[in-house]
Write a structure and sequence with these properties.
Number of helices of chain A: 9
Number of domains of chain A: 2
Radius of gyration of chain A: 20 Å
CATH architecture of the largest domain in chain A: 3-Layer(aba) Sandwich
Number of strands of chain A: 9
Oligomer: homodimer
Largest sheet of chain A: 7 strands, mixed
Strand order of the largest sheet of chain A: 1-5-2-6-7-8-9
Order of helices and strands of chain A: EEEEEHEHEHHHHHEHEH
Chain lengths: 362, 362
């Protein structure tokens, strides 16, 4: 598989899960695209953490993305660490773990790999591609690169390019990982170590950006830990400190540090307008894809203005687009949470378009 | 000197600078309080960095805080690393560098040390106490603890308590420092090392919070470094990455990592309402201090709502307070930058109140 960086990769493995049944016309398939730290376990118990799937709030039998009606596919992205080809895998040319010898991949490369999977599954055209955050970037890339292979697109809490502030937060995370002496310039596997401290700091920083200030305030405020008094030291006195430390320490059990470098880099590079002569609308010229663009009012990582820019660009070339901002104080993370209005909009859109696409109710 | 944590400290040293002349009535003294990474070098060439003083935009002859009219005092805070007693100094009990054996200090402790300095200088009552960010916390603490020792107070871009989000960002910075093996549980001086990588990551994270998203966008956008093309690697491709790395690497030359831990902790603990039975207004009951509260519209670290809460609390006990939000897209850092409206308001307030205080023009 040729990559945007000029190198190529192969053979590649893509780990994926499916839910529901593909209908006889092969017309009811929805590709779910996961976010930075997500994976293919959209539903069901996660094999590493033992926790429920990351999108159980939205996806499942009778849910907004109804597995009784649609056939769902969710694959671990290229560069990921849950079974797909990535920096933690083996470089066939050397027989050693790739580490930072792995080529830098882009969102477009991830989509190319997903398209190969869809070919492999014998599906000519997806009914929909749906995803939030970096998953939404993949949705937009699908619509731009392969408009004839999807009927509908649902980009959620995302943007057509990564902002300077978001690049800055990613860079801090990468620096935290690379500053960890256990990182060993990416060759930690060979040293029998893992840069868990650096990766935890990266996760903690990122996690702050996933929540709104109001969400942090409502969840923790300035409440102290159980002992109820200041320690006058550097232990976790405040509940919010303890929460962040927990987020950091549990994350490192399930995620590969090099994968974190590669995937954040792919997001930083994402700029759909730049790939189309600087005009975002040109990414969607002539497209017949039906779009449902969704943002969350308190999301400061991917603010509503970014989604509005996407919706306007599609409208500017007479595309078929609806745009909704969901009122919530839960920040970027809202797309993963139980947000009834959000779920209703996704369900309404998909079921409405499914009628046009000739997908029977089961 | 007794401390809030229950321990005591002494003898203490406070490094300070003065500018202008104290008048015969000793009535024209202004205490300038510095922010987290500031110091006493408010004006003039910094002895370590060789750069101009940190508040040259606002302070100086003929400037908003006019050294021709006022006598300025700026001291390095207790716990700092520019000459005042702090964790990089020597514990007299052991003859060793304090490190994390230094007691945790609070904003109120910093103010107690400043008051001892003011005593030492033979000044009974300050004309004003002025400061931004953590400096503004000290201003509020002065007004609450020692209302009879100041005539006017100018808390800028600050809050009466540190928010959950701000605690979270500080905690990430501390974790980055403490994750650095060169930190050696705070005893790095004895190991001949310094946790520069961890401190740089802490600074980088904090620096993002000092700028608005718009400021980062205007300054850097998605512009690439000189070579103008993606490296498809993990070097600093984007200008914003290079800028942040520079901020991190220059900071470590002038700042002590343990000081960073202590000062961020002091900010986290700051909660003026909690110290007054949970009612912020009670911190200002009966106060005759004249307040000028100032915030900046794009400051998301200390948003306008925090300043408004301070102004309302003062007004609720019939205090003398004006409150202004300055329109700017430069974020929290605006208080350090050339902002003409901001400077005019500070000048107008100080010069107006100086008339009431009987301070002659020189």
């Amino acid at each position: 598989m040729p990559l945007d960086c000029g190198r190529s990769l192969g053979p590649i493995e893509i780990a994926y899960t499916t839910f529901g049944r593909l209908n006889a016309a092969r017309s009811n398939a929805i590709l779910i695209c996961h976010a930075l730290t997500g994976d293919q376990h959209v539903l069901g118990t996660h094999p590493v953490t033992g926790k429920p799937g990351w999108w159980e709030n939205l996806v499942g039998p009778g849910r907004a993305i109804d597995t009784n009606r649609y056939f769902l596919i969710c694959s671990n992205i290229l560069g990921g660490c849950m079974g797909s080809t990535g920096p933690a895998g083996i470089d066939p040319a050397t027989g050693r773990i790739w580490g930072t010898g792995f080529p830098v991949v882009t969102i477009a490369d991830m989509v190319r790999a997903q398209a190969l999977l869809i070919d492999h599954l014998g599906i000519e055209r997806l009914f929909a591609v749906v995803g939030g955050s970096m998953g939404g970037m993949q949705v937009l890339q699908w619509a731009a690169s392969l408009p004839d292979r999807l009927f509908a697109a649902v980009p959620i809490a995302t943007a057509a390019r990564h902002s300077a502030q978001n690049i800055a937060f990613h860079e801090v995370g990468r620096q935290a990982i690379m500053a960890d002496p256990d990182w060993h310039h990416g060759r930690y596997a060979e040293h029998g170590s893992r840069p868990v401290k650096g990766l935890a700091v990266a996760r903690m920083t990122a996690h702050i950006t996933y929540l709104s200030e109001m969400a942090l305030h409502n969840k923790f405020g300035r409440r102290l830990q159980d002992r109820g008094a200041r320690s006058y030291g550097f232990d976790a006195d405040f509940q919010v400190e303890s929460y962040l430390r927990h987020q950091g320490s549990t994350f490192v059990d399930r995620f590969d540090a090099n994968s974190y470098l590669y995937i954040t880099r792919a997001m930083d590079y994402f700029d759909l307008a730049a790939d189309h002569g600087g005009v975002l609308a040109h990414a969607f010229r002539g497209s017949r894809v039906r779009f449902c663009v969704i943002s969350f009012s308190s999301d400061w990582l991917f603010p509503t203005a970014e989604s509005r820019a996407v919706a306007r660009a599609i409208a500017a070339v007479a595309g078929n687009v609806s745009f909704t901002e969901i009122e919530t104080d839960r920040g970027h993370d809202a797309f993963l949470l139980d947000e009834p209005v959000f779920a209703r909009i996704v369900k309404g859109f998909l079921d409405g378009v499914a009628g046009h696409a000739g997908i029977d109710r089961t």
